[in-house]
Amino acid sequence: MTSPGDNTAAAVAAVDAVVSYFFRQNPCFGRRAGWHRADGVLPSTEPRAAAELDRLGSALGAALRAGPADPELRADLDSALHMVHAEQFQLTALGQAYLTPPEVFAETDVSSYLRDYAPEADRAAALETHLRALPDFLAEAARTLPARLPAGERLRGLESAQGAAAQLATVARRLARPRDLAAAAAAACEEYGRAVHATKPTAQLYGPDKLTEFLRVVDGITWPARELLDRARAEVAAAQHGLDALAKQLGAADRREVVAMLAGQVSTDTDAAFAEIITRVRDFWAGADLVSTDTVTPLAIGLADGPSSAATVEFQVSAPLEKPRPPHLLYLPNLSGTAGAAHREFLNEPMLELLAVHEAYPGHYVHAEAAEAGGSTIRTCFPWIDGLTEGWAHYAEELAVEHGLAEGRPLLRVAQQRSALESSTRLVAFLTMHLKQTGFGAAVAEAAGAAGWSDERAAREILAVTSNPLGAMYALGKIVIRDWRDSAGRMARQDLKHFHDQLLRCGTAPLSTARRYWQDHTNQPASSYSEVS
Question: Is 194 found in the same domain as 233?
Fold first, then answer.
């Protein structure tokens, strides 16, 4: 007879095998996580091993059927099984046996060598190994490209190549390695980008059955896709109604004019204003007591390298396996002190406050810290499709306004409603395109009319979200999390806080895994289990 200890050991081994597979398949995951055996290592350009994925899935399934009592181990097993099934979906349903361009470009990221985890000479040597290997790796990857690529992925090819080339030069210069290696690697990135661009574009739309399978495999979502589309369109309508009401309150002619009011709220010192906003938002959540915001690893705020025309704020999770763990990083774009159109539109003070909620308190920063406290490798070291991660951060924007952050400040409410409108518009576009309910032109017209985008921006948004579902996951995750909360009935404040805390502690996991994790920890003491990898 098998003992509980034997079942636990088998389950831990099954999870460890998945961690090893994905660190090998995507060494960039290992470098970002602080697993430095991946330094200087690039993945194989051979096709994904279907037989190995089958073995991993079988071992995980057997471990789950054994019914592990520990909620932490069950969440690890469930997350691992979703990762394997997502890889199998990519291989079988989509026919993507080889590394895709986004996966290839991810391996050109050499920023991890700048972290002070080892003497500079050791890091520089690892960087040199990486740079030497990149040209051959990229040339081999180019030979595996299919004749057709999703249109949005193809469009991003040259942009990604140029960004990767610029980063290679910057990092190599900082670690004082020979410029010829960096130059050769940068040229190889650009050549790979040209190979991507030389492919023919294709829509690669799932259709209803594959879309349903994608949602189930990736995030455990079992709602019918058409029902989800109805929910997404209701979100669009609600955000439009909210903006219309705010326009009336503020004396604007329409929602486009009330959104334009945000551009008048621009600080001449964006980074100083943002630091002050971060403190104010942190104090708001401490007083609201709706989610734990205790943190251990500090958050560093800085400017992105080099001037930028893109007014985006980026949160970068620090390496969870490095000891001591380095600070998390929150990058503001370097707009060189100007207040250009992008600055006024996206980095005005109401938008900065909303970004402070989304990126820091209680968004990505607090989420990363809570996940670290859970002690799981698989739920802290791998990026997910972002239904939980981005869904939580987007849900937090709405939660903040519901509980008074925007009280007396209607422009913050405008910023929140604008964010909700744009994210739900992306979700509608993702679902309608993959359900094959509309053509590209009709989808562009619907998105432009709904969100107030230009036709050019709407077209680009739809190409992007159709080939990469990330943009759809903000609204999707928010809808799902809100639905769980509401279906549980009216919660006392301490129960709502427990609900939020357990979702965050689950880490980067599928949505369905997070729900089960919350249910497992309801009225139960936290487990002491910590995965050993």
Answer: no
